[in-house]
Design goal:
Blueprint: H1 9-16, H2 35-42, H3 48-57, E1 58-61, E2 65-69, E3 75-78, H4 80-89, H5 97-100, E4 102-103, E5 111-112, E6 118-126, H6 128-135, H7 140-158, E7 164-171, E8 176-185, E9 189-194, H8 197-200, H9 204-207, E10 219-225, E11 228-229, E12 237-238, E13 248-253, H10 264-293, H11 297-325, H12 327-345, H13 348-354, H14 357-377, H15 387-401, H16 418-425, H17 433-451, H18 456-462, H19 467-477, H20 483-499, H21 503-545, E14 558-563, E15 567-568, E16 574-575, E17 578-580, H22 581-587, H23 598-603, E18 612-617, E19 629-631, E20 636-644, E21 662-666, H24 667-677, H25 681-688
Parallel strand pairs: 12-20
Antiparallel strand pairs: 1-2, 1-6, 2-3, 3-10, 4-9, 5-9, 6-8, 7-8, 9-10, 10-11, 13-14, 13-19, 15-16, 17-18, 18-21, 19-20, 20-21
């Protein structure tokens, strides 16, 4: 496995010590996009009509990815790895769609995904004054509860239909609060096309976060409404010409999260305690799942999605820690923070209100580190790696929370957010008992290892049983595989939960007091302090800098700009911005993970060797941007984002235009492969002939 290398210190310093945002840096909200800056560099200024069209043509996959409408008939393009859960859910031992791919040659053959929700951002409203009025003069638990209650009131008033999803989004770590209203589709999203995994993830983990790449990481879904394809007047047209070296590009997507506005104390904790703990757990989980895969071909099939996610998370987390371990880079973060504190100190009123915020965050962060094992294992933040445990916890907590006033509930059980919780709780996707036993066993084993065998909670969980004995008993004895059983417990409320003899429900019910206490400890001692004081620092930034900067990523709609451009590696090699079809065949060895599927080998002589396959750009992205469309100034598809390179892993904490790169599949490769390799003429015709509304050009 290729591990991320340390990031070049000098380049990071150049990127991160500048007093203002550097050109091409930033994942910008659609209501604060720097069109003037883009025009200055590229001679094109996106106007409001252009921005609105791009926003409405872009979508969010609720389980962690991005996508876009690419035809007037609800066709959505995203990555293969973003749809792989659907692909695996629809697979069987006899028909492994992950390995062999899927192609619906007619609309009737398109197959419904058991758990898929797609969101389109329809409006943004500033509710900062409303939220800050509700929390004025409060601190600690009172601040936290008042803020959550206000969030719930705002979201509930907004969400007038199950077809809407309303979220109050915290921006600039509390400097602004915006209400995002989405149109949601979750009842009927169907799989249209997915290639074989061996070409979607060609090169496997060794090539992950690397370039050159030769991946066709794509899938197509379709949104249906009332049994018919959704009509989507806002959608992206296809560029048959693709992009040129140096051409302006945009990425419209939903970057998950960044930590660029964290304090130094928080970054120290991430570097020295929190990330190492996560890396160790991911390493053990990766080994555990890899060992499980050796049992049989079927064991490999049902666990492949799990292993993909773990390996991706492990490599990404290691890369992020490497960025924080760079002493010169870290010194730049210290310098930036001190400069801000010095500016605050020069304004007496600001110093009075904000001066103590950094120390308060440092104290809360120290508490966070201390509570981390209990947050992970007693609060059960990771569900002990068990899907069934997570479902049972949702049922037990849901029964109690739904009986309380909406403003007093856990956030995930408020009326506005219940549909998202229900999507996971009542998914019809298959759950594999054999894999569940192994994952739950590991979770319970790690809990005992980290908390200690004599910890009261460990004794309460395990009793006289070993982790494997407990996991086997409850996983094999539960009836929660049956969605009807889950719905009956949900509908029956607290009485049904109290009367249930299901072993998984009984286990969660027995642990409920401790789980709730651990959650409350974190919220009272850590979360509330970070929120309150983060908001104070953000207000100081606004007073001193305005909104010339961009907020940390929040898995909400953002737009970045950049250009097609290679880079120079640490050892002085020039990395070209494009790869070609020919390179994939040259790189193929016939053995995983460098094995091309039979369909590609058969089509080799009919493919144009020089067709651009993958490309890199300078767009600023992070996890969650997977599946984002890569656009030109005409809002046409020139590529499909699926990865970043190794240096981009440091993008969690800063952006460096010298070597941070977005990796995408070229639009020309997608069309040629669909036509020549897969004979997907119906799909190609829909993509290249789809008319779209006119967008404003350069002005």
């Amino acid at each position: 496995m290729t591990l991320p290398r340390p990031l070049p210190a000098l380049a990071l310093v150049l990127a991160l010590t500048a007093p203002a945002v550097r050109a091409e840096e930033g994942m910008w909200t659609f209501d604060n996009f720097p069109s003037v800056k883009v025009e200055k560099t590229y001679g094109f200024s996106p106007d409001r009509a252009w921005l609105d069209h791009v926003r409405l043509s872009s979508v969010r996959l609720a389980l962690g990815c991005s996508g876009s409408f690419v035809s007037p008939d609800g066709l959505v393009m995203t990555n293969h790895h973003c749809a792989r859960r659907c692909i695996q859910d629809l697979s069987t031992p006899e028909q492994d769609l992950t390995a062999h791919g899927f192609h619906a040659r007619t609309q009737a053959e398109e197959r419904t995904c058991p758990r898929m929700e797609i969101n389109q951002l329809t409006s943004i409203k500033d509710v900062t004054a409303q939220v800050q009025t509700a929390t004025r003069g409060l601190s600690g638990d009172a601040f936290n509860q008042a803020q959550k209650a206000e969030f719930s009131r705002i979201e509930k008033a907004c969400q007038t239909s199950d077809q809407l999803r309303c979220e109050v989004v915290t921006l600039y770590r509390g400097g602004q609060y915006h209400l995002y209203t989405y149109r949601r589709w979750k009842k009927d999203v169907r799989l249209v096309f997915a290639p074989e995994e061996s070409i979607a993830f060609f090169g496997g983990d060794p090539d992950n976060f690397n370039f050159p790449r030769y991946d066709m990481d794509v899938s197509f879904l379709r949104v249906y409404e009332d049994g018919k394809p959704l009509q989507t007047p806002n959608h992206f047209r296809w560029s048959s010409a693709g992009a040129r070296d140096g051409e302006l590009t945009f990425v419209s997507g939903n970057p998950g999260s960044t930590s660029r506005l964290m304090t130094v104390a928080q970054l120290v904790a991430q570097r020295d305690q929190l990330l190492p703990a996560k890396i160790e757990r991911l390493a053990q989980l990766r080994g555990w799942v890899s060992q499980f895969q050796q049992r049989s071909p079927e064991a490999r099939r049902i666990s492949q999605d799990e292993l993909f996610g773990v390996e991706n998370s492990y490599k990404g987390t290691v890369g992020r820690r490497e960025a924080l371990l760079d002493p010169v880079f870290f010194a730049s973060k210290v310098k930036d923070e001190q400069a801000l504190r010095d500016r605050v100190a020069k304004v007496p009123a600001l110093q009075k209100d904000v001066g103590g915020a950094w120390d308060a965050i440092a104290q809360a962060t120290a508490t966070e580190v201390k509570l981390e094992p209990e947050t992970t294992w007693i609060r059960s933040a990771n569900r002990y790696y068990s899907e069934l445990f997570g479902i049972a916890r949702n049922l037990v907590w849901g029964a109690a929370e739904r009986a309380r006033p909406d403003t007093e509930r856990y956030r995930e059980f408020t009326d506005a957010r219940l549909p998202a919780t229900e999507l996971v709780t009542f998914s019809k996707a298959p759950i594999h008992a054999e894999l569940e036993v192994e994952l739950f066993t590991l979770g319970l084993t790690k809990m005992r290892e980290e908390l200690g065998a004599d910890h009261p909670y460990v004794r309460k969980v395990l009793g006289k049983e070993s982790p494997r004995q407990l996991a086997t008993r409850v996983v094999q004895g539960t009836k929660l595989y049956d969605v009807a059983q889950r719905r009956a417990l949900w509908s029956g409320g607290a009485a049904a939960i109290a009367a249930s003899t299901d072993p998984m429900v009984v286990l969660v019910r027995r642990l409920d007091p401790e789980m709730r206490a651990a959650r409350k400890a974190f919220e009272d001692q850590v979360e509330s302090v970070l929120k309150k004081n983060g908001e104070l620092i953000a207000r100081a930034r606004f007073q001193l800098e305005g909104t010339s900067n961009y907020p940390d990523a929040t898995f909400t709609a953002r737009l970045s700009y950049g250009s097609v451009r290679g880079w120079t590696s640490e050892d002085g090699r020039k990395i070209a911005p494009f790869t070609e079809f020919a390179g994939a065949f040259q790189r193929a060895t016939g053995e995983a993970p460098f094995d091309l599927p039979a369909s590609w080998l058969k089509a080799k002589d009919r493919l144009t060797p020089t067709t651009p396959f993958d490309l890199v750009t300078t767009n600023d992205i992070i996890g969650g941007n997977s599946g984002s469309p890569l656009l030109n100034r005409n809002a046409e598809i020139v590529g499909l984002v699926f990865d970043g390179n190794l240096p981009s892993l440091g993008g969690e904490y800063g952006f460096d235009i010298r070597n941070n790169r977005t990796v995408a599949v070229d639009s020309r490769a997608l069309i040629e492969a669909l036509r020549v390799v897969y004979g997907a003429d119906r799909l190609v015709q829909e993509l290249v002939q789809a008319p779209a509304p006119r967008t404003t050009g350069p002005r």
